[in-house]
Amino acid sequence: MQATPSSSRAWFTGLVVHTVLAHATYNGVRVLISYRTLELGGTGVVLGLMTACYSLVPLLTALFVGRLVDRGYATAVLWVGTVLSILPVALAAIAPNLGVLLVATMSLGFGQLLTTVASQALIPQSFPASRLTAKFGHLTLGVSIGQTIGLPLAGMIADATGGSPHIVGALWFMTAFSSLTLIAAVIVMLRGRTPHVSRAEAAGSVRTPWALLRIRGMKPAILASMATLAAVDLMTAYLPLIGQENGLSVTTVTWLLALRTFAAVISRMIIGMLARRWGSLSLLWTASATAGICVILIPVLTQTWSLAILLAIAGFCFGLTQPLTMTWVSTLSDPANRAAVLSIRLAGNRLSQVAIPSIASVLTIIAGSGVVFTISGALLLLAGGVTWRNSHEKW
User: For the segment 8-35, what is each residue's pLDDT rounded down to a tens digit?
Assistant: First the structure.
């Protein structure tokens, strides 16, 4: 059952608020986990592996979750994801060693997958194609606002005690903060229940992952999304290390990361105007390439003001690439496989978030932390080039 006109605005507002709160939690907690990893004796290699493991469970389960959502279980998946956006934060706070912290990290990553797939799939399930770009823009704007709130909030709480950062106290604060998502999830229930489809009924219209990947335009869109998400994750995980090496405080690092997300907020507010003026594919390849150049320069230009400029430009570009690829893939398939293609896109993101940090963490032993930014920047340039080659296609 779809939402009635009187309730559609309320439930969608609840979904955006849920997205704001959840992503404030994810991004604030992830940078705190990086500092907690260092507190527990982790090195740059461990940071990379921790970042990779955050995406490991989502990589293995994304398509299954997408199929479940396509069968009408989006709100149930959203509820489970909400719970897994709260409890792992508390577990990270009490973690006595890196092993327990790893479990908390993986659980939080799975929670993010569940809330993301459910939230994204509810939009094409509830609105006509003509409204998808606007609605995805609102949803991803909520992501950016949440990131902008969460990062400085976590940093200020950690530094509030004076002296050395109080990372455990900040994690407990973020546990309480993340509990607010429960209220937002209740509001989303105003949408009403989508009729469930049995596995046998769904089997007739299900397309294999390989068939979905062969859809024209799917692979370039996924590559652009993969490169962006890997760059964002590596930046979140390794900027604290760059900060420590150059004498920057926790507050400074978190404010720099918040500047990146604030720039994404700005770009998502005007993405419709930019896409109409420049064309979606031209906008996508330009954003990917520009972000790649900025990311490569991060370990080279390490003064606070230069990092601020680089992160602001990169953040503006990141804000464009995600909703553009999200809208692209959601219109490439039939309704019975729509959450599946969104999940494949997310699985691609998670693959990049597992493989690239793992490779980068090993290379830091040889070449130092700066190689992480070189790798992620080069991938963004590659994605920009592949999209440019496909720039003759119409969306």
Answer: 578 899 999 999 999 999 989 988 998 8
Residue 225 CB contacts under 8 Å (≥ 6 apart), including other chains: 321, 322, 325, 326, 345, 348, 349
Per-residue pLDDT tens digits for 214-264? 777 788 888 888 889 888 878 887 888 888 888 888 788 888 888 888 898
Q: For the range 46-49, what are the long-range contacts, defined as Cβ-Cβ under 8 Å and sequence gap of 24 or more?
A: 46/98, 46/361, 47/237, 47/238, 47/241, 47/361, 48/237, 48/238, 48/357, 48/358, 48/360, 48/361, 48/362, 48/364, 48/372, 49/357, 49/358, 49/361
Contact status, residue 56 vs residue 106, Cβ threshold 8 Å: yes
- Least Cα distance to 123 among 395, 342, 284, 269 occurs for 342
Q: How confident is the model at residue 309 (pLDDT cuts 50, 70, 90)?
A: very high
Quickly count: other Cβ atoms within 10 Å of residue 147's Cβ.
25
Contact 348, 225 (CB under 8 A): yes
pTM of the model: 0.73
What CA–CA distances, in Å, run from 51 to 118, 167, 369? 23, 18, 14
Q: What is the largest CA-CA distance in the chain?
A: 62
> Cα dist. 296→234, 366, 381 in Å?
12, 18, 10
| Domain regions of the chain by residue span | 5-193+210-389
Domain covering 5-193+210-389 in this structure, CATH number: 1.20.1250.20
